[in-house]
Predict the structure.
Amino acid sequence: MALTLTCPVCGKRNGYEFRYGGEDKGPRPAEEGMTPSAWCDYVHMNKCTAGVQKEWWFHRDGCGAWFTTYRDTVANLEVDAPEVTE
Amino acid sequence: MFGKMMPRMGTPKWGQKPLWGRKPRLKSHYDAVIIGGGLHGLATAYYLAKAHGLTDVAIIEKRYIGFGGAGRNTAIVRANQRTQYNVPLYKEALDLWPVLTRELDFNLMFNNCGNLNLMHSEAAMKAARMTIATAQFHGVESHLIDAKEAKALVPALNISEDITFPIHGAMFHPPGGIVRHDAVVWGLAKGCAKHGVHIHQQTEATAIHTENGKITGVTTSRGKIHTPRVLVTAGGYSAGIIYHMLGIKLPISVLTIQAMVTQPLKPILDHVVSSGAYHCYANQTLKGEIATGAHMDPWPNYTTQNTAHYIKHQAEALSDWLPCLRGVKFMRIWGGLADMTPDMAPIMDGNNLIDGFYMDCGWGYFGFKSCSAVGKYMAAFMASGNCPEMLKPFNLKRYENHALMGETAALVSYTPDN
Amino acid sequence: MNRLNQLPTLRIDPAEKRTLSYRGKSLPGVAGDTVATALFANGVRIFARSLKYHRPRGLYSLDGECANTMMDVDSIPNVRTENTLLKNGMVVKEQNVKGSAEFDWMGFIDKFDWMMPAGFYYHTMHKPAAVWPHAMKQIRKAAGLGEISPDYVMRGRFDELFLKADVTVVGGGAAGMRAALAAAEGGLRVVLLEARPHLGGCFDYRVSDNGDGTPLYQRARELAEQVAATTNIRVFTHAPLVGTYSNNLITAHQVGSDSDSFTERYIEIRSESIVVATGCIERPLLFDNNERPGVMQVGCAHRLARTYGILPGKQAVFAVGHDLGLEAAIDLFDLGLKIGCVADIREDGQNPDLLMALADRAIPVLKGWVAAKAHGKTVTKVTLTTVEGTVKRDFDCDLLVASAGLTPVTGPFIMAQAKMGYDNHTGYFLPTELPERMFPAGRLTGVGDPRAIEASGRLAGLQAAAACGVSLNGELDAAKAATAALPGPERGCKLVTAPVKGRKSFICFDEDATIKSVKQAIDKGFDVPELVKRFAGVGLGPGQGGIPGHNLPLFVAKYTASSATPKPTTLRPPLVPTFIATYAGAHHHMFKRTPLHKSQKAAGGVFRNIGVWKRARYFSDDFDCREEILNVRGNVGMLDGSTLGKFRIHGPDALKALQRVYVSDMSKVKEGRIKYSAMCNDDGCVIDDGVVVKRGENDYYFTTSTGRAGATVEWIRYHTRFDGWDFHLVNLTDAMGVINLSGPNARKVLAKVTDADLSSEAFPFSGYREITVGGSIPARAMRLGFVGELSYELHVAASYMQAVWDLLEEAGAEFGIRNFGVEAQNVLRMEKCHIILGQESEQRTNLLDVGLGFLWDRTKSACKTVGAVALRQAEKDPNRFKLVGIRMEDDDRPARDGALIVDTKVRGYVATMRKSFTTGEAVGMALVEKPLSDIGTRLEIFEDECNGVRLYARVVKMPFYDPNGERMKA
């Protein structure tokens, strides 16, 4: 495998320049009234989709941007026109 | 000639019959269904049948037994883990290899050559000391040795100062070693079949059914099965199956892990040697190949494709600490899946969220070395419905309770939470 | 042996002599020889013995697909002598023999194969259990091929290249060269890789013509000249492809020639598009003793003569399934080889011209016949049979040229995850779906006509160019039409095995797997190729799938009477065995050095790797660092703290970002004061601590621990990624250095180099000042107390660091100032119970566990501080660890770091402990379960190698030194 990722700033680059930032779980929830299980769901739990998922990446050896992209976790390839697997 | 003078006998009788029986018919009811024909599934089925008289058991395997991590790991076994919850479990697993060899009448080729875990700094030596004390406290042999002592055991080791991570010493664990991984798969399958377990290969589980919070059955590509008990232990695929079939999310990231072998050599490496700093381990198989691996690309994947990046990394690491291998060639690299948890410890739980539903997953790259003991305890769990003491610390709730297990001292790099 | 010295196809230079040493003798060779051809020319026929049965093995394919001719060359094991060019003075030895390859004492094992059916090892040697360890020793000795010395040093220069190309063409035969030329027409950057030392492929040694009267070898040389003349084609010869990966990444290695500056080099190419023109190898013919020395493939026999000038035998029999076999027979006959007969597996479909040429030469052709058995240790006779097995005939011969047909080299596709299928017409396993931007060309597509090979190359080259965005104005259509007008893929021979039981018919040479052992594996339930492979040992040896790759799936499908079409087994990199030295390339150490590295080294610093840095850990041979420590306590010392993470954050939302990641209320950070705080992860576990100073409105400077410096930017940006806040984050870690000046005399030293008012009133503890040192050097000064003494931390631009250090050293000379290193600092801060993350904490230790709860501001929940939720939820948990101070009952026996706190279970562990030189007490910090954390609790300590003897300590108050902090506040 030789993943490439498309950074919104720097364009298509070698995947090893990036750092993975998890499945996209939406914005940080409010602190008040957070139950342990809701907290755990946001922090630790994953869907582990075998297919296309929306996920976060950071361009560590580049511009330093966090961005989301779609990747097929079975082929380990970035996907242009995503259809997220559910 | 000599050969011609020998009386010619027929092929020995073990050489002929199918090892795990003829293909069984898929029944519409089983007392227990195990999803995943890997080592944990086979071992659990074996002990369910043998120790608990639960013989009406089906193993559902999408491809063929041992296709996943069971056939892809580099077969290292050891019991020098970091916490008191893990050490006794792995110790029992280690003690079971000779027992299983006898019980299954199948040579699992346990080579207890001992493991050396190299240390490259004073801080690492201190960390090793804690792990060693933990092992010794639990009656597991493990010692801290210095670089010279390590060199005496492993003459190929480079203990000069002039490498990226100079070797300060090692954690030496004599009872560990390697076991022939395929043999364990086939031996357990043989044992399962002997006790009446049905192994269904090329059969995919497509749905798990529940009613009123109870397991009722499993749908497979070959038909529906009614059952009150389901264990999901499908290695890297477990978390996806459990979420997509039952809606239960797990704190798991599935990563591709790679390993490789060199061309076969006459004996050169008598121990399993590993280094955390180099992300690299090496041992010599009975066939003579140097098996080496350890690094993972830190993002989730279901591919078993390997990477150019990794084989190069491995060569750079070996060039440093086992420099004679520079004159040896890599022959094959392969990938497998590791289902990693945030604390590098597995999740073994069940019969609480859904009656009759059990899970045994999150093993990362420790699934092989634990399979025998886990099979024994998961079987006890499934047979009685009550979690044995040995498995209690591995419950799923620990993540929600902010009580990670501490099997890793450092933060893991495949989740954003560090 | 006399060489055929005058052939125009030769790739050797008979005039340039070489020698090699073999079995104590010096043997002649010539330039251009491989080690194997030189040995063969000297009459060597048995090169090695097989792994399991010690069967004699010889030259078979000449392309190194099996271990038959692997030898030890210059102490390097498992060298593929067929692919290794001869260099003067090479020392060559056989492997895996007791005695010699010719007379191997272990050869008798071959008679005992019946005792070792597939999976033999799994059923034996474990009863009684005591047998196994001994058996295992013998197995280990018997296994393996070559030998490497633990002291072996690989000589030579290993280089690496990372290229970008528009089009990479893999395979430098006619198709590959045409593809490269076509792709280069539009000015693209083209790379051409060829595994052999020269371009030409299957044209290189053939004298048949291409339809216009030009012999193929000549045509190949013309194309090679055109390629060489095309400046935008970069050619790598003797450079086999070893891996293909997704997104068109290719790896290869190149073997250096005498004139190259490298021995071997690793090549990694990222291409826009790829043409695969790797051609075909031959499909081994399965019959009894099909791997005897004297049995060789068509290309091997043909190339021995045409490329190396060596006639492969005297009296030959051919058993082939492809026109190339007939062509070779004719050519070799003309070169002087006697041919008893040509058995062609095919009943019909042969090229009539070739049949006529054979008839002209009175060479008998048996159609529908195949080899059944080779006789002799090296071939002396062959039994031929009809493919049905009804009739047999014997022929005397010393050479049996045997080949079932061709099999395409599709490794590049398989490794790029192409789906493969069985093609009924060609009998090849071919991609059913091509990976993106990968185009096949040449013989691997099934074409055999020389013009069709060239045309398919041109077409693929143009397709690859088009994929790079080159507009071709109808040229592509023209190339398609040209290809279509020429003969298409040829029908391949489908015979799986000769009609034999197969006890000695080897499907895999390297692991001695026979048809019989494969049948046994299938009978035992291992009924798919991937399982047979593992159980019977097929294709897992040094040659991997090269020999069995095509035949195994065909045989399994036949034997299981499977209705499904056969699927090839997986193939994995490296496609060609590659030295670890070559993969490693020019790798070198990668560590950062602080601006003071040189002077620290000169001062006797003992350096250690700490994260990405080299740091001075000690400045003495005494690893307890007594002098370093006492000098700080009683006088003044200096530490290079440059590895600390240093950051500026500024912009309108800078404060909001700090509030998100720091547990304290950062709005309370005041100018001129430092604020110590910590960052947690979402689990409330402490991941970092450091100080923050405010330098202006929404403009802060902060430090992190050494280990976290690299991750801090991504951490802060990660946790604010949904907020759209406007702030800038600058990593100053490398731009600034840090000097820690500590000890009761620190003020006096600093006062000598600055005009700033250093009095406690003007610059109190916890103060921050921007001062000038040495008259002109700006320094950010902080009054901290990590080591528990009066101390100043000076943050200075990296370029001024040495100057400031030298000034302070000079100023401190009168007080006896000296360096202290990381270990001394570790002890000094331990006496003060100041924690180091990772040392007094582990992954699961939260802020409250280590006693830093006072930093946490609970009122700022609107900031959604990272870790706050978890801290709230965990704070009442009675089962957590707590950091405590401990003192040994025996002050002369400090426990070692990492010792356990136990009762019947493990209850905690000692994080850091030393006998304090300052107080004389054995004190330290430990993480223990909460119920054990009360002051005065007696702790039982279990140390490694304690042999049952326990140590005891008590929980005591922290810190151990200067509890009121009077010294650091002085």
